Amino acid sequence: MVTTRRKADADKSVSVNAPLSAEEEKELGNEEFEEIPFVTAMLTYLGYTVLIIFGHLADFRRKFVKSKVPKETGMAGFTPLYSDFESFYTRNLYTRIRDCWNRPIASMPGAHMDVVERVSDDYNWTMKRSGKLLNCLNLGSYNYLGFAENSGPCADAAVEAVARDGCTPAGPRMELGTQSVHVEAEELVADFLGKPAAMVVGMGFATNSTVIPSLIGKGGLIISDELNHTSLVLGCRLSGARIRVFKHNEAEDLEKVVRKAIIEGQPRTHRPWTKILIVVEGIYSMEGSICQLREIVAIKKKYRCYLYLDEAHSIGALGSSGRGVCEYWGIPPADVDVMMGTFTKSFGAAGGYIGAEQSLVDYIRTHAHSSMYATAMSAPVAQQVIAAVGQIAGRDGTDEGQKRIRVLKANAKYFRSKLKQLGFIVYGNDDSPVVPVLLFNPAKIAAFSRECLARNVGVVVVGYPATPIVASRARFCLSASHSREDLDHALRVVDEVGDILRLKYSQVHKHHRLSEILGSK
Question: What is the DSSP letter of 439?
Fold first, then answer.
């Protein structure tokens, strides 16, 4: 069984400003979440059960033999600092396969990268460098438009900014930390987003975790998608507001939660909420799904809620001109109260931004901790933002930015469709540059990563607790810097490894041979 949603299927009873044409509607991708096969789910649970049993046996053995497990000493009578289960999981499950993460690279994260080879002679308790560099195809970095470069107009502009403004403003924005490059970046970002004003923050994670608490507090209600990013979850918790969650990307469930919250009011007192803030993402980076923005905006308007949209993965990667999920859906930016995004993905820089009404941006500047206390964004990073956004918007007088957007979209559709034809279970939307492939069994997480690296393909694998226990996956991130030859090579490697590990679980899509699909267009 497969759950499929066509992006054009919005609530027909609600009129939306700037509607898409019939031709544009057809261009919107489908979203697919194939059900996990029952036998596969049971075997996955069994795999984790076996690992946990052996973990307890290993812990029992460690009571009698010398172990590398760190222990708290001199703290008799104190509550342990470390969580029992987290420590157990780390030493008995994660440590076995931790060579699959934290791999250092010795190059820029372009279409190809140099991975520093590491070896361990004590079952991953310690790692050391072998002295070799592995040149790998990069399918893990968030380099959507290929701006993570060490040459070209953007890199040259960033170098010039160092000579002009130095490497750091050495202070927060509110205390002599604002440079002309910050003002220029904010004006350009606001214009690009179609918002009256914008502010930039030096860290993407801190944009969410420090701005949300400045928008809402005690007496308010936050309604958050159940799969929102950790930075959003942290920001919601720090706000002091009550938090409710709704099922991932399901507008019907969102409306039920909103309606119930309004009817019942605050706990115990039943007073009306001071405000209700709906928090969603543009592209969900672990699922590859795209926010159902039309329906969410309709609900926001109907119940007079505020909407906070995190476009970390969608800005630059979605929409005909890279302006994100609003452009993708044909939604006026004015319908979204707060637009947030990061510069670390599509723009090859660092930090984040907030786009909103001028009065709201002014308020956030004087209340968000990232603006009041954190050191401002460095000048070369801000200049990289200016150069990348300018190129995407065509301000450099070329269509290079638009070419990158078109190539990214074509790469995402091509790679995703071929994986489905090979028989893999692939999550998410056809237009998303994030392509998750389900691995399930815990042993296959490490095996897939290691086998791909042995064939010079660098991938990201993700398992519990970052995903549900039965939904471990490999997450491919496509880029405009990938050539068709790069993608075909990746497909050959993934197909070979998939056959070795028996990863072609799909019961919906017909399985094809690699030679058949690479010959089809």
Answer: -
